[in-house]
Amino acid sequence: MDPKKSSSPAITALFLVQLVFSIIFAFANLFMNIYLWSRGKSFWQIGVFNLFSVQAIFFSSLCGAYALKRWGTRSTFLLSSLLALGLFGYLFVFNVAKPSLIPTLGLLYGGYIGLFYIGFNLQILWLSNDKNRSLLVGLESAFATLAQLLTPLLAGYFIAARGYRDSFMLIIGLLILQLLISSRVPRIRATGGYRKRYFFLAENETMARLGFSSAAYGFLAAFIQMSYGLFFYFLVQNEWRLGIWNFVFGGVSATMFWLVGKQLKQTNREILLSMGMLMATIVTLSLLLPVPQLFILFNLVISVSLPMIWVPAKSSHYTQMIEIANQSNKQQTSRLGKMMQLLVFREFSISLGRIVFFMLIVIGFDFGLSVSYYAMILLACLMPFTIRLFAAEKIK
């Protein structure tokens, strides 16, 4: 499929399906851990759910690579929606999370995310060029952050008023809508040009650097997810208050994603990365102090600094992947297939970072907060620097 010939309705459908996905993802990302906590009061269960979901994100990306080759990107959107229908359908019918089923629920959730992103990111890569890449990355982030802005507020109020079971019913309705819109997204097939071993291994130094920076982001993003969600829930003790605060954090983040996406240029990329790195590192260090209210400061500052780090880094990743794919095309291999290979490797790297974080949850939190908590904070302090360091190299 030639991106220049893509119809406006098809492109609109792509971003509409991303918006619906982002609403569901924002709901689950914030409230699933709290739901599990309310049912089991166990950090171990939360860690297991997230570990299985993170592993499923990567392995579903591999399955998505096969689906992209056989049926095209549309199939990954459809399969993604069906897996989530299975997850939330079960929670709606039974309204319980049995410990024995926690891994299965994590696999369904991770499969939903992985299948969606392997198709969506391939679409964005295929449609982007040097002129519109930062804009598309900023637009993608703005849609996601818009969902993160409104979903916590509305969902927090609805959960407080009606409970989780009715909330799951609304999510099922949104998933049916996502399924319908998915049938209208562009259908792009990756027919070859990739090497399976490089799903797991860096093909060259450029991809090794991209992998390190993506793994660092995975760890940091997992920590921020818990800070916005369960850690902050312990402070406010109420889904409605949690939703109000996340509305504030989401508003700050949405504004920053829009500003950075609009203003990002090659000349100011390093400045934005460095400023975001310093802000994120300093505010993360403040969490070493035993003051729970510092999570308010952390969440506000990280809402400003994360877009300053990740939009330039992600734009750089896309530039690197497109350059490598173009070089492969000169060697008469499939450009799309190469892009898919690089996306799977990037997803693998992000998953590794997330796995390290949630392993700390599993092995540490049920046996006392001190050691694992401080290890988590110290590691999180290193992540902004790692992202900035390995995203700094320019294409040769």
UniProtKB/TrEMBL annotation:
<feature type="transmembrane region" description="Helical">
    <location>
        <begin position="43"/>
        <end position="68"/>
    </location>
</feature>
<feature type="transmembrane region" description="Helical">
    <location>
        <begin position="109"/>
        <end position="128"/>
    </location>
</feature>
<dbReference type="InterPro" id="IPR036259">
    <property type="entry name" value="MFS_trans_sf"/>
</dbReference>
<feature type="transmembrane region" description="Helical">
    <location>
        <begin position="167"/>
        <end position="186"/>
    </location>
</feature>
<feature type="transmembrane region" description="Helical">
    <location>
        <begin position="77"/>
        <end position="97"/>
    </location>
</feature>
<feature type="transmembrane region" description="Helical">
    <location>
        <begin position="295"/>
        <end position="313"/>
    </location>
</feature>
<dbReference type="GO" id="GO:0022857">
    <property type="term" value="F:transmembrane transporter activity"/>
</dbReference>
<keyword id="KW-0812">Transmembrane</keyword>
<feature type="transmembrane region" description="Helical">
    <location>
        <begin position="135"/>
        <end position="161"/>
    </location>
</feature>
<dbReference type="GO" id="GO:0005886">
    <property type="term" value="C:plasma membrane"/>
</dbReference>
<feature type="transmembrane region" description="Helical">
    <location>
        <begin position="207"/>
        <end position="236"/>
    </location>
</feature>
<feature type="transmembrane region" description="Helical">
    <location>
        <begin position="271"/>
        <end position="289"/>
    </location>
</feature>
<keyword id="KW-1133">Transmembrane helix</keyword>
<dbReference type="Pfam" id="PF07690">
    <property type="entry name" value="MFS_1"/>
</dbReference>
<feature type="transmembrane region" description="Helical">
    <location>
        <begin position="371"/>
        <end position="391"/>
    </location>
</feature>
<feature type="transmembrane region" description="Helical">
    <location>
        <begin position="12"/>
        <end position="37"/>
    </location>
</feature>
<feature type="transmembrane region" description="Helical">
    <location>
        <begin position="242"/>
        <end position="259"/>
    </location>
</feature>
<dbReference type="InterPro" id="IPR052528">
    <property type="entry name" value="Sugar_transport-like"/>
</dbReference>
<feature type="transmembrane region" description="Helical">
    <location>
        <begin position="343"/>
        <end position="365"/>
    </location>
</feature>
<dbReference type="InterPro" id="IPR011701">
    <property type="entry name" value="MFS"/>
</dbReference>
<keyword id="KW-0472">Membrane</keyword>
<protein>
    <recommendedName>
        <fullName>MFS transporter</fullName>
    </recommendedName>
</protein>
